[in-house]
Amino acid sequence: MRLVRLVTALCTTATLALAGVAPAGAGPGLAGRLVFLDAGHSADGGSTAQVPNGRGGAKDCQTSGTATDGGYPEHTFNWDVTQRVRTELSALGVRTELSRADDSGPAPCIDVRAAAANAAQPDAIVSIHADGGPAGGHGFHVNYSAPPLNAVQGGPAVTLATTMRDSLADAGLTPSTYLGDDGLFARPDLAGLNLAEYPAVLVELGNMRNAEDAAVMTSADGRARYAAAVTSGIVAFLRQSA
């Protein structure tokens, strides 16, 4: 068993190195911490049933998200990257919980996901997405809830967003060229973030409608690079907040 764990850890370190991200390594502030990972959207097309958005309004329960021009769906990209992040965090001793069980059937509504995340009492909540922006724009942005609805959203969530933005940029990824403030974007309309009682961000890793970003997203190596960068951001935040 110890040998299996060692091999897993070495493989994770290799993945981080290939992705251009300095290996986080196990150490103080990681063992036993809990991260709630939300692979955005649903494989079944979603539902237009209205659910609370956290600010007195309502939003669709769930959607299938966007897709590349070649038909690669966002929900599948989100699921793949989330699984990679989970594997890397587990190798570092970080516990994880997921918002959905697979990429083949119905998924919980956004308010149900937020409730599950809060019930887990995690150290961080990270929702993985890809954008469907203008074809001429590319790059990532990290969303956080603003104006804040509680003290966590006004402090730790902004720290998580900034730390994640810095880690993605350090990995060589480009901040969004079409919106956000140097890779950060304050949003009042994202239910999962508005309902969060623990530090939460929603990461749009790139623009699926942009040919350059789409080429990376449809590549296994590209998804590994995204996952390694997200993992690095999570680890950096956990160590800061230890």
From TrEMBL:
GO biological process: peptidoglycan catabolic process
Residue intervals passing through the bilayer: none
Secretion signal, residue range per the UniProt entry: 1-19
GO terms under cellular component: outer membrane-bounded periplasmic space
Domain annotation MurNAc-LAA: ranges: 114-235
Keywords: Hydrolase, Signal
Pfam families tied to this protein: Amidase_3 (PF01520)
Ranges where the record places region Disordered: 46-69
GO MF annotation, one: N-acetylmuramoyl-L-alanine amidase activity
Family matches, as SMART domains: Ami_3 (SM00646)
NCBIfam families (alphabetical): amidase_Rv3717
PANTHER family named in the record: N-ACETYLMURAMOYL-L-ALANINE AMIDASE (PTHR30404), N-ACETYLMURAMOYL-L-ALANINE AMIDASE AMIC (PTHR30404:SF0)
UniProt-recorded name of the protein: N-acetylmuramoyl-L-alanine amidase
Biological source species: Mycolicibacterium brumae
